[in-house]
Amino acid sequence: FRNGADLYLQGSGDPVLTNIELRDLAGMLKDEKVAGGWKTFSFDASALREQPEVDGGQPIQAVYNAGFSGLNLDFNRIQVEWSRDGGDGHLKFRARVVADGLNVPASWVNFLPAATEPPPGANFLYAGEAGNERWLTAPDLAETLPEEGAIFLSVRNPALNTAEVFRRMAADLGVKLPDPAAGTVPANAELIGTAESPPLSEIIKGLLKFSNNITAELIGATAMQKQTGRVLSQEESGAALTAWLTARFPATEWRGFTLVNHSGLGNRNRASPRQIAGILTALSRDPVLSGLMNRIMTDDPKAEAAAKTGTMDFASGLAGLFTGKSGRRFAFAIFLYDRDRREKLDATFDRRVLTPTPGAESWLGRARGLENALLKDWRDRL
């Protein structure tokens, strides 16, 4: 939008905006005539409540635990590259926003050495705040990391990050914009360009295939904003969805059902297999919705299944729909949980460390073997 010489970039919660769409949007500025240049550049992410991360109980470096808002880009992550800086042996870090082959340097993301040595496995520690992205690096990284490499880190200020990328893209196209600042589009502003997301059905297919938490949070938050007419906090939005499900499917026993977010990430969400099976039974009656899940076990076309996994350390779930040998359609949900090991992990968890939990991978392998065996047995007998 523009209002005279004031420019506004507004988001409405699109979870799959990439550099390509943002560049095309920036390209629309070339046709705008602004005497004396743009005076201000504001970003408006007020469509949804901004969150710096999905869940406060996840590793700080975890890219699946990024922030989200009404304005997001490339699942709110940055690629961090490093190499030796000259001949002094020090590491030089560079951040980029990478999507669809279009890389944009993220010079607004800063890296500083930590004053004290963090525990092993804590290579990057977030030290930013509202308005900046700053990471601290372990002092001994030059000894532990290879000569060069790259990883992804999460973005905690997604709206500002998106605006900074937009500003950089505009500059590459010959359009100079001031530093971005948070703002709200005025009622009399003129719409000068749009970037449309794919249809929701396509977005959900990608969500179910890649298990992207940010996409799940944005879909759920947007749905509940539409449902209630209010911009909700994360927990308020989870509670609103719980209320909607309870009213929509009264035959299901909802006692104990708790949603504190929409992705399920974290150990405070609660759902029973019977409750999930109840949702799936209702979903199975809608050919569009039931067709969105990923197909598995397609060796027998008469006994196919469509399902979604869900995993945390020492917790695993598989839920979906399958057709038995009889041709009947069934909903199913399998939850496996090692309470003692999970509670011990939660009690000793250090957010600074991003290393696999000892024993978690082998436990998950056994859990998946049991899930597949149960599903195959049901499929063959029913």
Describe the structure in your own words.
- The chain has 382 residues and is an alpha+beta fold.
- The chain contains 10 helices and 15 strands.
- The protein has helices at residues 19-27, 141-144, 158-172, 200-210, 213-228, 234-248, 273-283, 287-290, 339-348, 360-381, and strands spanning 2-3, 6-10, 40-44, 77-84, 91-99, 102-105, 109-113, 124-126, 133-137, 149-154, 180-182, 294-296, 305-312, 315-323, 329-337.
- It has a 4-stranded mixed beta sheet, covered by helices on one side.
- The longest helix is centred in the last third of the chain and has 22 residues, at 360-381.
- It is globular, with a radius of gyration of 23 Å.
- The termini are far apart.
Any chance you could write out the topology, listing elements then pairs?
Layout: E1 2-3, E2 6-10, H1 19-27, E3 40-44, E4 77-84, E5 91-99, E6 102-105, E7 109-113, E8 124-126, E9 133-137, H2 141-144, E10 149-154, H3 158-172, E11 180-182, H4 200-210, H5 213-228, H6 234-248, H7 273-283, H8 287-290, E12 294-296, E13 305-312, E14 315-323, E15 329-337, H9 339-348, H10 360-381
Parallel strand pairs: 2-3, 3-11, 7-9
Antiparallel strand pairs: 1-2, 4-5, 4-10, 5-6, 8-9, 12-13, 13-14, 14-15
Helix pairs in contact: 1-3, 5-6
